[in-house]
């Protein structure tokens, strides 16, 4: 069976690949959206922290003898702790300044983190084995689906939708939003706003670390693995609307699928289709698809 002249297995394989890439786009752009939407900071170090999560998982398995499942929890926590230290020591002094200062600081952190890992491991990739429980593939009849890639999609959706639910539909989320809009009023109710802001930043960067651990068995772990990806993720955030949680999730998944289909019909255009979509969206709706017009 063919679709537009393309065999069904090839079409479905590219759709799955696009959905996997879209899952990474969604999770990384979600972290950026959480940090920008609640803290008003453009976190350019997100790609480096994604790489840090992958490397910490690899180090935990290679040096400490831990397994994938332990590092899936531990590596994001360690990245989150690193983010908390950065927020408490450097970033919190820039909240009242122009966005450019935060951008420059996080760009500097990117260069520092990548430089440290390059000094120890160079630029060659480190192999990362798929966990035994997720090895192999499942024959669905119309295609063979690798088990690990299916796990990536499911795990990403669960984490993304859970984050959206907490921020948008719970009392904790309302405290977070209120604390960033009117911190003095929220503090009057006995809520520690600075601590809440610090933990929010730590959670946002932990999402990047979690995405890095998920990506590690699919791509080789190396110090520059976040450089190209973060550019695409920023485009996803802009298209979805800066600060829009659900916008980042839906746009990330959607653009991943569009990118996958483009590889089927016009492969040469697949690396630029995201940026073309961004240009069109900004021309028609400058605030993004889900952003609020001011």
UniProtKB/TrEMBL annotation:
InterPro entries: ABC_transp_permease, BCAA_transport_permease. GO terms for molecular function: transmembrane transporter activity. It is a multi-pass membrane protein. GO terms for biological process: amino acid transport. Keywords: Amino-acid transport, Cell membrane, Membrane, Transmembrane, Transmembrane helix, Transport. It is found in: Cell membrane. Its main location: membrane. The chain crosses the membrane at residues 15-39, 67-87, 99-121, 148-167, 188-219, 231-258, 265-284. GO terms for cellular component: plasma membrane. Belongs to the binding-protein-dependent transport system permease family. LivHM subfamily. This is Branched-chain amino acid ABC transporter permease. It comes from Duganella callida. The lineage of its organism: Bacteria, Pseudomonadati, Pseudomonadota, Betaproteobacteria, Burkholderiales.
């Amino acid at each position: 069976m063919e679709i537009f002249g393309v065999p069904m297995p090839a079409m479905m394989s590219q759709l799955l690949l696009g959905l996997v890439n879209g899952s990474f786009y969604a999770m990384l752009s979600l972290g950026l959206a959480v940090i920008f939407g609640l803290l008003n900071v453009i976190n350019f170090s997100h790609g480096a922290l994604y790489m840090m999560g992958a490397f910490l998982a690899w180090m935990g398995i290679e040096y400490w003898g831990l397994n994938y499942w332990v590092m899936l929890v531990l590596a994001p926590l360690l990245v989150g702790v690193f983010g908390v230290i950065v927020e408490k020591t450097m970033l919190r002094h820039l909240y009242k300044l122009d966005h450019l200062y935060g951008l420059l600081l996080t760009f500097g952190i990117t260069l520092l983190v990548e430089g440290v890992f390059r000094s120890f491991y160079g630029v060659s990739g480190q192999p990362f084995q798929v966990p035994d429980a997720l090895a192999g593939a499942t024959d669905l009849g119309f295609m063979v689906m690798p088990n690990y890639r299916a796990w990536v999609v499911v795990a990403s959706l669960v984490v993304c939708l859970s984050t959206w639910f907490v921020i948008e539909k719970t009392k904790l989320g309302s405290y977070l939003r209120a604390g960033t809009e009117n911190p003095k009023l929220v503090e009057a109710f006995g809520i520690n706003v600075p601590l809440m802001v610090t933990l929010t930043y730590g959670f946002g960067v932990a999402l990047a670390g979690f995405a890095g651990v998920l990506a590690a068995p699919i791509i080789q772990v190396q110090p520059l693995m976040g450089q190209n990806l973060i550019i695409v993720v920023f485009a996803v955030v802009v298209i979805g609307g800066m600060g829009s949680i659900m916008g980042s999730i839906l746009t990330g998944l959607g653009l991943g699928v569009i990118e996958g289909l483009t590889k089927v019909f016009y492969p040469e255009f697949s690396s630029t289709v995201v940026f073309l979509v961004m240009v069109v969206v900004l021309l028609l709706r400058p605030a993004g698809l889900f952003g609020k017009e001011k």
